[in-house]
Amino acid sequence: MGQSASAAAIPSRRESNRDSHRSKPKSTAAICPMEADDESSEIVNAAYDFISDLPDECLACIFQSLGSRDRKQCSLVCLRWLRIEGQSRHRLSLDAKSDLLPFIPSLFSRFDAVTKLALKCDRRAVSIGDEALALISLRCRNLTRLKLRACRELTDAGMSSFAKNCKALKKLSCGSCTFGAKGMNAVLDNCSALEELSVKRLRGITDGAAGEPIGAGVAAASSLKTICLKELYNGQCFGPLIMGAKNLRTLKLFRCSGDWDKLLQVIAERVTSMVEIHLEKLQVSDVGLAAISNCLDLEILHLVKTPECTNVGLVSVAQRCKLLRKLHIDGWKANRVGDEGLVAVAMSCPNLQELVLIGVNPTRVSLETLASNCPNLERLALCGSDTVGDVEISCIAAKCVALKKLCIKSCPVSDIGLEALASGCPNMVKVKLKKCRGVTAEGADWLRASRPALAVNLDTGETIQDASASDGGANDNNAVELPAALAIQPVFLGIASSSSTGRSTTSFKSRLGLLTGRNFVVCALRRWSSRNNS
Predict the structure, then answer these.
(1) Helix (H, G, I), strand (E, B) or coil at 282
(2) In the predicted structure, residue 351 carries a pLDDT above the cut 90
(3) Which tens digits make up the pLDDT trace of 444-502?
(4) Residues near 74 by Cβ (< 8 Å), separated by ≥ 6?
(5) How far apart, in whole angstroms, are the C-alpha atoms of residue 426 and residue 419?
(6) How far is CA 287 from CA 259, 265, 284, 303, in A?
(7) Does pLDDT of 135 surpass 90?
(8) What are the backbone angles phi and psi of residue 113, rounded to the nearest 5°?
């Protein structure tokens, strides 16, 4: 009996202790009201909108660090965010159809700080006209960059009114437009800060001797540094502009008709400060190359599919342009540029860092000379060369100590050449092999195993790209392409597009995909906003 009584007493004690532990917090809360105040203050702080205390400038800096999609989603949070996001956006891309005109006042009332504007229209649609461009120029007087694509309704009058209102313009790029020489001259006469001019398929310039030339203007005499002309039937109308650009640094001529030898002679006599010249599918011969050799500061030269250029012209350039760093030659398999010109480059241009040969047939003689005399050669591409085989690759591997990137395409190279790369070129980081029938997958795998740090790409199907990092540009996170109505009333269009999908309407933000978790800042803003809503 005694044991049963004690056994019965034990669980009663445990239950009493358990009850005492459960009742303890209640008694403590009653005795210490300070803890209750702390809990209530935490609840209040959790519901407080801390972003309301954040200055507009700080919020604008956050928006500028976001991508285009996140920025548009942030603008849907509230009216304040919509206003700040619009005022902090400096780059804008619009669909430049004719129906954009009535939205321009409201559009640029929101985006009142735009300095870089792109107006692109589909070729099958009717583009904006002079009235729209003039209205834009009145709203964006601080515009520094303008890109026009297929705006066929623009005339000389519209470009003239734009140039008078946007005198701070630094870069103009126009393609498939129909305004003429008067509009272009108006830009050059009024925009004294213009630094870059790119023109492609400008049909409004009158062809023939009666055509009005493109004059130098105020811009050419002071600030113009880059001129790029593409696919122009009458590109030589820009001759006076090029000759008058005293500070011109870069000249690019792509697929422009006419004989350019005489014009290049006059240009080279008056403009000697050029450091970069691109000639592609142009009627130019050794006479033009001899004129280019007067540019003693030339560092970058591209000769692409200019079959009249031979070793003679390349030798004249090499002997005088001793600062040459990048040389691209597409010989179009005409066999007019070969060892003679390349040896002259090797002997006269010790600073050569990048060499791209397409449709050119160098031999071991020129390759060995390049390797011995160009100690800074880091990037080499050999494409469509019938004379580049295993012997030439072995020479490159043994001699090109500084080489970092090698591209070989459509050359008679085999696995034997890869064996030489395994022990040569100690600074090599990447090898690209494409359409080399003698190279097998086993050979590429063996090279990877022999040099684990070396990236080997075999028959990837990728096009050959310029190895220089300067030719590429980083993506601008602040760029956006908006239809006019969406830019003005994004909230209402966002609701309409979401409701049409038939998804749940319980959460406004989830329907709009607002503030996705791809960015830490966006996540933080989302948490603060949800607390405020709660």
Answers:
(1) coil
(2) yes
(3) 999 999 999 999 999 854 444 443 333 433 344 444 444 444 444 433 333 233 333 33
(4) 63, 66, 81, 85, 514, 515, 522, 525
(5) 14
(6) 11, 8, 8, 14
(7) yes
(8) -115, 20
